[in-house]
Amino acid sequence: MVKIAAHKPDILAPVHLLAPAVRLGYRYVKLRRASNNGNANNHGHGKTGRDPLGARALTALRLSESRYRRLFETAQDGILLLNAVTAQIEDVNPYLVTMLGYSHTEFLGKKLWEVGPFADIAQSKEMFAELQSKGYVRYEDLPLRTSAGSKIAVEFVSNTYDCEGIKVIQCNIRDITERKRLEDALRLLAFHDPLTRLPNRRLLLDRLEQAMHSSKRKNSHLALLFLDLNNFKTLNDTHGHDVGDRMLIEVAQRLRQLVRDSDSVARLGGDEFVVLLEGLGEAQDKAAEYAASVVEKIRQALSADYNLGTIHCRGSCSIGIKLFIGEERDAEQLLRDADLAMYAEKRATA
Question: What is the model's pLDDT at position 55?
């Protein structure tokens, strides 16, 4: 610690917090001391000593330290200062104290992995070792826990510098929890149907293309099931959009429960849904048999009773099947093929 005692109240600050002003300050202090010694000698000869250079140096030092300390204490990001040799925490700013909910004294003197938010010892030691070897580390999305137990996401950037022979690690910690929440909400809007929360057409096409690549590598069949709810428009027009929306949500929930985690269910819009079945194997007959069994389960599930508030009804659907392997056609064309198969069935059962 450096104690600046040329004025009151005293200012106490870790040496590294005075950088870079402290480097000049040390030189000025040395000049002041040397000047004072000279004044003492001159005083013995009856001369009056004046030291404008030393006074200016101390004033500049106090001003620089005050500015640097103010930046540290008012920063709107968390700042944590580590001893680069021992991993002990030497200081934290007020924003980090507020962000994580631990007091200043709960941080000071502890090793990084001895404090709650960084209590994942293996990860924190690995982080510290990387800092020691590289002098810089950055984590775009690092999960931390507050003293209250809530989980927050932070951007963690650290670098190492030397200050008057003391090696210091400065960690800048930014809370990005709200930013991530907004990003997730935007991603949901971009790739999911807002009503049912199912993947939308855009996300379905992306998953379909990935599934096609995988199918080609593994020589394994895929199946696209294109669903259209029968008489949905009549229900929607007769009882209103609220009832229609409830039915669409219920259909989405039933479809989710019928498929495997590796399969996808999407809503294209209106009363149209698509189910993508993956990993059906190389044998076409077995793949077709499995797809047909899923279709039958879907028919049974969607024809069960619906309790839509005060409205009770039964439903049914038309389903078109497109069985394929690899990348025989592009994703859009495969969807059109399944759609045509669905309309063919609807005409046949009309």
Answer: 78
For the segment 40-77, what is each residue's pLDDT rounded down to a tens digit? 454 444 444 555 557 777 777 777 777 877 888 888 89
Q: Is 271 a catalytic residue?
A: yes
The pair of structure tokens assigned to 202 is 């855009």
H helix or E strand, kind and range, residue 25? helix 21-44
Domains delineated in the chain: 2-72 (no CATH), 78-180 (3.30.450.20), 192-348 (3.30.70.270)
Q: State pLDDT tens for residues 241-265.
A: 999 999 999 999 999 999 999 999 9
pTM score of the predicted model: 0.62
Q: Which residues pair with 79 in a beta bridge?
A: 172
Contacts of 177 (CB under 8 A, 6+ apart): 152, 153, 154
Alpha carbon 4 to its chain centroid, in Å, reads 43
Strands (DSSP E) found in the chain: 2-4, 11-13, 78-83, 89-92, 136-145, 151-163, 166-175, 221-229, 264-269, 272-277, 305-308, 311-314, 317-325
- Measure the CA angle with vertex 167, ends 30 and 130; round to 5°: 170
Q: What is the C-alpha to C-alpha distance for residues 341 and 324, in angstroms, rounded to an integer?
A: 13
Could you tell me if 192 and 200 are in contact, meaning their C-beta atoms sit under 8 angstroms apart? yes
Per-residue pLDDT of 316-334, as tens digits, reads 999 999 999 987 789 999 9
Which residue is catalytic, options 91, 175, 193, 271?
Answer: 271
